[in-house]
Amino acid sequence: MTRGFFKIFTLVAFVFTALGIGALVFFPPPWNESNTTVELQPRIIIPRNLNETAGDFVSHFDILTLEDTITSWAPLADGEVLVSALTGYFDGGFAETQFIAYRNITEIESPIYLAFIEYDPQSRSYRRAWSAPTSATRPGTVRLFTQDLLGDRSICILLSGLNNQGEHTLTVFRMNPQIRGLPTHERFSKIADIRIDGNISVREVQRTQAYMAGQSRGESFAISAFGRDFESANILDQVEIIYAFNASNGLYEQVRMNRIPGSQVEQRRVRELLGNRLAFEGFLSGLWYRVTPQGSIDRSQYIYFDTASREIIFFGDGTQQVFNWHNSNATRLGLHINSQNISINSLRRAVDIELETLDSIRLRVIENIRLSRVSSPWDGSYRKASPMEGRERPSLLDAHINARYDSPMGRIHFHPDGTYEIRSGESLIQGHYVFFMINGDEMLELRPSGLATPQREIFLVESERTDIFPRRTITLNSARLGARGIERLNERPFSLTLIGE
Q: Who's near 65: CB < 8 A, 6+ residues apart?
């Protein structure tokens, strides 16, 4: 009797345990429900340039770094091409949702569309719940991000980019906090749609501790847009237009305009440069020194635009950074450039360049994906170096060299075009390399070609201090670049010894 009862009890317990595990798998418990109001950091996926023209140049290294994988969780229709994707817990639910930017290549104007993708429990699949067109049309310039613009903890999705007229655009949609109980067409409302021939930025302000603690609303952010003053005969005269949120109608409206006089320069030459991408790239080519607020030249900070090699060199605070010049788009006031660090793939910069005078430019560098008004250390005015100063490419450290070395790996040949070969017996390894600086430390990256998944090796470089290049010996220490900076790996260092031709 007791033994039979025990068998029945064991069988019932096993069945209930199996049912409980199944319930947990298909119906996750809402234990973190109290945290649904916390804005989590979304994952940002950067797209490749889908707007390449015959005049655009993409180097072999660009091809490697542009091979990012972006996917839409819901299928796209015929003719639709994915441009960018942003993933996170945007609607406060327990499943991740996704915003995507896409274009329809069958449409003549081909605007960039913004769509919201959510999980459908009934079909157990993701579906496109909402979409709307934006003012941007050039895929390679699109930036997609979310932000609490209004201070009420509602999510605003911002999409910025250029249109076919070379204007900067910013389209903002607000997600209704009661999104799950609303019809599809009421889930999102457009609160801003700005187009201007200058740049656009969000004027962030410090919010109170009460807002940070979730006890009160915060101040809404204004939007600032710079553009040409069409009431002036001088092409370089500008206006700053300030937009603020009007709670009564739920829209951003113009509240103020400031006129900014530009330099009086020869207008014919200005017209030849503005709106012409190749002409402005030729004008940029060379060395530019930063101009201090006092108007003097700061030779400790410069930017070198290498148009031929499609590289941009930023030098400041004793550190040199080399960026691949991915693509350019002409604007009415200058040029918009997308660039990527030659070694750290996740470090990207968008550079807005405006003509200030015929020998000076004004830069605004977007260090991350957001259009924050917080200044980058590279923002400001730059003056072109004289022909004698700009005759040679400035080089505290060359990214590429031409030298052969003997090493435990085999004989390695660094080519000046950024490729390398390692020969050891019958084996041959080829790939791309770059020397670069991080906080005063010299680094070397090797990226072999022909692998199914891109891999790279990072080394901390130690060598004798000498003005003779290439250096006779180089010691390489295996390292890793992480959130804490440079981390040495517990591996034995090895040396490279220069050999003749």
A: 324, 340, 345
Q: Express each pLDDT in 85-100 by its tens digit.
A: 888 888 777 788 899 9
Expressed as residue numbers, the domain containing 413 is 403-499
Residue 132 host element (H or E): strand 125-133
**Do 450 and 356 share a structural domain?**
no
288 is written with which tokens? 């530019």
3-state secondary structure of 115: strand
To the nearest 10°, the Cα dihedral for 367, 369, 372, 378? 10
Query: 27-67 pLDDT, tens per residue?
Result: 555 444 434 333 333 333 333 333 333 333 333 222 222 33
| 432 shares its domain with 380 | no
Find the CATH number of the domain harbouring 347.
Answer: 2.40.128
49: nearest Cα among 242, 345, 278, 329: 329
- Judge whether 105 lies within some domain: yes
444 has pLDDT over 70? yes
User: SS3 letters for 292-360?
Assistant: CCCCCEEEEEEEEEECCCCEEEEEECCEEEEEEEEEEEEECCEEEEEEEECCCCCCEEEEEEEEEECCE
- Do 146 and 157 contact (CB within 8 A), yes or no? yes
Q: How far apart are CA 422 and CA 407, in angstroms?
A: 9
